[in-house]
Amino acid sequence: MLLVAGPALPVALDTTPPDNGPKPDNYFDRLLKYIPAELVSSYIVLASPVPDTFDGDARKWAYLVLLLVGLVFTPLFAWQVLKIVRPAHLAITTFAFVVFVASKGDFFGYFDWWKGYYALAAAVVFLLVAAIAHLSPLPDE
C-alpha cells in the first residue's frame, strides 16, 4: 500500500497487481467435478477408519468393498438424485469415481504392480476421454 499526500487528506493507493481471474484447475480438481460431492465425501468418511480397523488382507478387502459400493452407488445416485439419464454421462461419472479411488491409492496400492504415478496417468486419460466425448447437457424441457 502506498500513501500519497495531497492537499487535504492522505489517499491510499492499492499497488497489488490485479487478480486475473481464478486459477486453472489441476487434474485432480477437474476430476472431482465429475463425481457427486456426496459420493466423494462418503468414500472419504468410510475409508478413513480402515487403516486403524483392519490389517493386511482384511484392509485390502475393506477397500475393495468400498470401491464396489462406490461402483454401484455412483451411477445410481447420479441417475436417481441428479437425474442424469444419458448412459454415457453415467459411465463417465462412474469412471471418474474409480480414478478418484485410484488416486488415493487405497485398494490399488496393495498390488505389487501398482505405481503411484498410474493414478495421475489415469486422471489424464480420463480427462482426455471426457473432453473428447464432449457430452452436452440435455435441452431444457
Describe this structure in words.
A two-stranded antiparallel ribbon has the order 1-2. The protein contains six helices and two strands, in the order ββαααααα. By secondary structure, it is mainly alpha-helical. It has one domain (24-133). The longest helix has 25 residues, at 56-80. The protein has helices at 27-32, 37-47, 50-53, 56-80, 87-104, 117-133, and strands at 2-4, 11-13. A hairpin with a 6-residue loop joins β1 (2-4) and β2. The termini are far apart. The protein is globular. 57% of the residues lie in helices and 4% in strands. The mean pLDDT is 83.
In total, the number of strands is: 2
In N-to-C order, the SSE pattern is EEHHHHHH
Straight-line N-to-C gap: 52 Å
Structural class: mainly alpha
Q: Characterize the largest beta sheet: strand count, sense, and whether it forms a barrel.
A: 2 strands, antiparallel
Strand order of the largest sheet: 1-2
**Gross morphology:** globular
Classify the beta-strand content into a percent band.
under 5%
Query: What's the helical proportion of residues?
Result: 55-70%
* Mean pLDDT, all residues: 83
Rg, please? Answer: 22 Å
**How many helices does DSSP assign?**
6
Q: List low-pLDDT spans.
A: none
How many structural units, i.e. domains?
Answer: 1
